[in-house]
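Anyone else keep sequences and structure tokens together like this?

Example one:
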Amino acid sequence: MILKLVLNHHSLPFNNRGASERGILDFLSILKTCRQFGYKFLIIDDEQDASLMQLELSKDYFIRNWYAISKAQSKYQDWRAVLLSIETKQSLFEYQIDYSIEVGLMGENKGKNTLLSAYVNDTFLVSFATKYLWRKNHLPVWVYNLKEDSEEATELLNLYDNLSIEVHRKELEDNQRKLFNTANKIWKNRQVLFPNLTLLQDQIGKVLQNWSHRNDILDKARDSLEILDKFCSQWKNGDYPDYQHNYLRKLGLNSQVSGETTKTKSNPRYTKERLFWLPDGREVLCENHIKLPNGFRMHFYSDSEKKRIYVAYLGPHLKTSRFNS
């Protein structure tokens, strides 16, 4: 399974260069965010330049012009890197399709192949917010079947700025889950899925690569990792001054999270089980843990200096002075 987006070049051009310069940043921001959800390729029309450099944003102003001018400004360095890293497929259809189906915008008589591609591939359009028509999260279209001489109304999912990403976040997350639906895939793609976390290889890596436990445990573990990653991202942005359990709850964690009891921490035998080595050579106490189904626990360490969380243990309940800690 490969997740793909469809470039809606019909949404161009912008009215002027200023709008183009704002629009290209929205476009690149969409692609950068979608990549984090596992969307690897941007499908473009066969007649478009595969590098996108020849895409005309407004009259006589192309992406190549923006790229050349932006070199003089360091603030655009990361965005230039995003542009150069875009992987495109220069065909709207991976296989030969039956052109007895046509998809067009409501109010228009002729279909567009970009709309057909998004419909056939069951994926998102990426549009430029040039006018109200393309600033819709759900694009109303008609689908005509020539063989059956029938027409139906439906909607295509449309991305055009960061707000539209938030509207469609659930669909993006659901598709990401379908893509990374096994423990081994979660481990292999951990840096894409959880860029703000470090999953310790000696324990977490071995557990995920050799997963033989219940699926509901894995689902809850993944939910917890997503919340931890989200917290770290906002922590780095200054939204939180430090780590606290209740911050995870506010972000949607629906599993219990806590530290160990004083009695457990004071017992060297129990403490030893919770000591883990970080990649930088530090040995730390990972007392904080999230309670998962069937008595499983996920132990982690929050680094206040790096504003990063290290996930150290995923498995059955470790020994404690009180089993319900």
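And example two:
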Amino acid sequence: MGVEHTLKNHRPRGGLLKNAIASNKRFDMSTLKLGLKLGCIADDFTGATDLANNLVRSGMRVVQTIGVPSAPLAADVHAVVVALKSRTIPAAEAIAQSLDALKWLQAQGAEQIYFKYCSTFDSTPEGNIGPVTEALMDALGTDFTIATPAFPDNGRTVFKGYLFAGNVLLNESGMQNHPLTPMTDANLVRVMQAQTQRKVGLIDYKTVAQGEAAIRERIATLRGEGVGVAVVDATSNDDLHLLGPALKDMPLLTAGSGVAIGLPANFGLKPSLQASQLPAASGLQAVVSGSCSLATNAQVAHFKNTGRPAMAIDPASLMNGQSDAVVQQVLAWTAPLLQDGPVLVYSTAEPEAVKAVQAQLGVAEAGALVEHALASVARGLVSLGVRQLVVAGGETSGACVQALAIAQLQIGPQIDPGVPWCHAPSGDGKGVHITLKSGNFGTEDFFSKAFDTLH
């Protein structure tokens, strides 16, 4: 498949999107019947597939675009997820990209807009969740929206406005050590209020448990009190299904991917196996991991313990223009091993090691060096015949997808909650099966299980 030799300012062009869709047999250009219900804007690439996965599981046909297309949508789908890489960029740039995505989705006839962020709500006091939310509200002319990162299937629950990761508060889960967006406060009302000009309120678990009428009544009360954004409690999928109908007429939703399970029914859609069918898989297998989360650290350790080959990239080795040499060394190592099964290339490290590298290189430079190197490795692996690729980490996924010049993804079956296999068509008819795993998602055996699931 085609690749770009630069990661900077990459935006897939409309021609690539049209060609990719046309090469996929599930999209018959002669029988298009557009009926776009939901237009989604995701602030990173793993989050986009996470959202698309939940929509597909609930019966929606979904296509995910990488960046904002420059051509009209040419696919018979219920939802489009525009994947941006805007979570950690300056707020003004995140707003501009999100508004660009909004304009394109509106032009395609999207009936409702969904701004998707991470289920750990990770951000900084300056944004980008709050600023993007307010910009979208202004553009849509709405004075109220909801905010909830709840995703019970992955242990993310909201209770009395506090976000839990598993059985602990978010700020005790390891997210307090996130290298880019450390989360030291689990109170979402407080976190969101620090990022927004609008007043932030709460729709608590007692109201949600009473269903649609009670939720709508609470929304009306909050609006009367001047509240513009309401954090919503949800501790189970039942809560999300109760919430769904109350959101039917809301122009803008902001949430993690959990809320998505309650939305397709608003459009008369039901779960269908056909929604997740992908072309048959072929080719070699590999894993590229750049996340430093606790979950991914455990997944890397598990893969290595199974005896499969794994090679670590030391961020310090990439300094002083040595990145290309390191990439070539990695690819030379992987080439003879790929025929015997999946290999792992990773920069995953413990928080203390990450901080040491950041102190030496700077946070932004260290992250950019690693992302660029892993993206180059991914591009090289595909050129070696890898057609089944697992990528771990949000920033890493964004860099790899851009390096591979992937314009759109067809969403397939779920591996673990929030992580589906996807298929990126290509002009040669082979395409690449790829999964973009958020750092915090997946069981310890995820890397091995992913390939078993695909076959």
